[in-house]
Design a protein that fits this description.
Layout (H helix, E strand, L loop, with lengths): L5 H11 L1 H9 L1 H15 L9 H31 L9 H18 L11
């Protein structure tokens, strides 16, 4: 399903109300400003704190990255055990990606501190 954009809503308002066409001819800037305000009021921006879809995608992708890194570490350890190497070497990029993804995941999942309300 395609998301309806503000310009689509604006066009449907103009098509549905013939008086807007005449108003645009006479005073285009003022009429379009009025229409844009109506569209903004009827379609408010979703704040990031309420955008659950994007939040879930971010948590899912970061979790997947952490799991892939853990899997890669397990493979490196198994290869080191097969080759009987004393200490397995982990690539620096693997450590960097894993720690960054884990830190970002912790930041997303940590509770947000509320500012105390001033006492009156």
């Amino acid at each position: 399903m395609e998301q309806e954009r503000s310009v689509d809503i604006l066009m449907s308002k103009i098509k549905d109300e013939p008086s807007y066409v005449e108003d645009i001819r006479q005073n285009p800037i003022q009429t379009l400003q009025k229409l844009s305000e109506e569209v903004k009021l009827s379609n408010p921006i979703i704040p990031a704190s309420q955008d659950k879809f994007t939040y879930r995608i971010a948590v899912s992708v970061l979790s997947l990255v952490v799991l892939i890194v853990v899997g890669c570490v397990a493979v490196v350890i198994m290869i080191a055990a097969i080759e009987k190497t004393a200490e397995p070497e982990f690539p620096d990029i693997l450590v960097a990606i894993g720690s960054t993804a884990l830190g970002a995941l912790a930041g997303l999942l940590a509770p947000i501190a509320q500012q105390p309300t001033p006492v009156k």
